[in-house]
Every structure is written in C-alpha cells, then in structure tokens.
Amino acid sequence: MRDFKTYIFDLDGTLLSTLNDLASSTNYALRWAGMPERTIEEVRMFVGNGVKLLMERAIPEGVNNPKFEETYAKFREHYMEHNLDTTRPYDGVPELLHELKRRGKHLAIVSNKFYAATQDLAKHFFPDTIEVAIGERENIRKKPAPDTVLEALRQLNVSKEDAVYIGDSDVDIMTAKNCGLPCISVLWGFRDKDFLIEHGGSLFVEKPIEILSRL
After folding, report:
1. Which of 47, 120, 129, 161 is the most exposed, having the fewest neighbouring CB atoms within 10 Å of its CB?
2. What are its E.C. numbers (predicted)?
C-alpha cells in the first residue's frame, strides 16, 4: 500500500451530502422565475460541474433563456442562506478525516462549487482537519482542468508525487487524470459504479474508512 502524504477531496457527493439543499435552491429559483421545477434525481444528474452548469441544465434553454442570469442569481442568493438546512457529512467521513490528520496527512478540498460556499462549508464541518479549501473563482479554470488541484497543492506546499485524489463523479476521474494523480472513486455519492467504470474509474470504496487501506 502506498503511503500517501496528501489527500485531495471533492466536496459535494464525496464529503458532504448536499443534494437536498442544492435541489431546494434550484427549485426556489425556478419557482421565482415561473419555470418548471426539477426532481431530486434530475438535480442529481445535473450536479458535478459547478452550480452555474447545474442551473444551465435545470433552466429551459439554459443560458439562452432571457431570465437565466436573474434565475441563477436567485439560486446563489438562496443557497448561501440555506446550504446548511439539510447538508451533512456522510457517515464515517469525520472519523476518516480525523484519522488521516492523526497520521500526519495533509488534507484539502477542491470543488466546483462557488468559492464562498466551499469555504463556508469546509469551515463549518471540518475546521480541525481540512487545511485548504478551493472553490470556483474567476481567473482559474475549474475541474476537470488541473488548476484548482495544483493551487491546493501549492497552498499546502506539498508535491503531487505523494498525493491522491478522492471524488464521486466522472469529472473527478478526469481531474485526477489531468493532474497525474491516482483517483479513488466513492460509491456513496451522486454517481453509481457502472457510470464511474464507464468513465474510467478503477479504484472504488463503499465506506470512507476503506480509503485508509485501498491503495
């Protein structure tokens, strides 16, 4: 088993169960705009590439809809106020992070969620374990580009040679590949195993604690 020194985690669907709050804010914005609401399963398949793309998929005609920007702004406004309504860490995640920290590992979050929400959620749920949390922001390409992961490694002042990436989606698999990192795909998130295999996944865990012994 490789002794990794750095663990880079995706956030939504990997560390936190955020789907219900994302769906609630999506439908709040859609109702405000007089547009059809979306089911939980629809929102599940829309997430993974950042909230702007989530809304592009949820809003009829996407960015070509004349009310897109206003509706997207309503989503952001509502989500910043309600992103803790039902969001919780997945069972076993806090224990995993504390054990990794106890072993002296560096821990970071890299998300396509907008920067302020990423920071707020990391500080609220993981103040004693996560050292760096990077979200979507201007002038830096989001995942699957390697930029945010490389920025996290820079802030941690560590080499990617001793790092591993953990996520729940095809975007995460592509991100790890683009960074030259091994990828562990979790099976409790937004995508199932068949979907992940189809998109190149090869290492899987069913429970957070398995990450300690998977590689």
Report:
1. 161
2. 3.1.3.18
